[in-house]
Write a structure and sequence with these properties.
Length: about 325
């Protein structure tokens, strides 16, 4: 088999993401089902979008779909484990709970991996029209609407209703290299804005590890806490990774998600100068499907990683990876 054409795959995924985005923005989150529990949701739109993405990829890349052992997508996969074969990794709607509640922090997340390493990543929020993309070795970028090309007239109060109805504001788009600002060093966790997620596992040792760690990160230094600037939990792993790549968030700690949640964002973070390590102490070289991750923005250091690991209370353990 010929080596994958990463630029071609990148461009195809972008167009596919926009097509899927149109389906999402025009849909209502009907037929909400639960998977694991009431916090783990799936809609008919998730399934419809994945069907379109899956069929499009199999049509465009028949060799991969026939020779590669799997197309890995969240709503159809029975296992989150990757093989060395060329694999597309897709989450049709990362942030389904947000979608159900009409909170626009959602994304289509698509990655291409080969030899168990993510090489191309595309993350698209169709509501904000923010498109994050990266090819390994070629940098990471954000394509997003600029300010409107024309501003509303200052004398709008004197315009007739017909004139106002005819007025149109058109936006243009710009592509900017990530991170959006020059990276600065992160002195320590007390200067950090950190993204975390509660997940859908709401009891047991992993839940206890998470909640105790959240307390240790946010707690006052007098009690041994890191006294971070704040914690953010917005419900979308792919966009959290992109926030780290962009430089809006310093660190993102995650446990319990899957390869389709982070694979695309992983490429984007690293191509933006950041790093991705494991969610447990000492995991410097995690696998894409390890289910626990720590992403650090450009300008961060190994010392930041070690300090974060020192605040983890317990250990994240997932039976299907350990």
């Amino acid at each position: 088999m010929a080596e994958p054409n990463l630029q071609e795959i990148h461009d195809f995924l972008i167009e596919l993401g926009k097509k899927a985005g149109s389906m999402i923005t025009s849909a209502n989150p009907s037929t909400v089902d639960t998977k694991k529990n009431s916090s783990d949701l799936v809609t008919e739109t998730d399934k419809a979008v994945e069907d379109v993405i899956s069929s499009s990829l199999k049509s465009a890349y028949p060799d991969y779909s026939c020779i590669s052992p799997r197309f890995l997508g969240e709503e159809s996969a029975t296992s989150g484990r990757l093989t060395p074969a060329p694999t597309f990794i897709v989450d049709p709607i990362d942030g389904t709970t947000n979608f159900v509640h009409a909170h626009p922090y959602i994304a289509i997340s698509m990655a291409f991996a080969h030899k168990q390493r993510a090489l191309v990543g595309v993350v698209y929020n169709p509501f904000t029209q923010h498109l994050y993309s990266a090819i390994r070795g070629h940098g990471a970028f954000l394509t997003a609407p600029k300010l409107p090309a024309s501003q509303p007239p200052t004398n709008i109060s004197s315009m007739s209703d017909a004139s106002i109805g005819e007025y149109k504001v058109e936006s243009t788009y710009e592509r900017r290299k990530l991170p959006l600002r020059s990276p600065t060093a992160l002195p320590n966790l007390s200067n950090a804005l950190i993204a975390v997620e509660w997940g859908n596992e709401r009891s047991g040792s992993n839940w206890e590890c998470k909640t105790a760690t959240f307390s240790a990160l946010a707690g006052d230094a007098s009690t041994g806490g890191a006294m971070v600037h704040s914690l953010r939990s917005l419900g979308g792993a792919a966009l959290n990774m992109c926030a780290v790549a962009k430089g809006d968030v310093d660190i993102y700690w995650e446990g319990g998600c899957w390869a389709w949640d982070v694979a695309a964002g992983w490429v984007i973070v690293e191509e933006a100068g950041g790093m991705v390590v494991g969610g447990n102490k000492g995991e410097w070289e995690p696998k894409v499907d390890s289910r626990r991750y720590l992403a650090l923005r450009a300008g961060g250091s190994n010392d930041n990683v070690e300090e974060f690991w020192s605040k983890i209370k317990g250990k994240l353990v997932y039976e299907d990876t350990d």
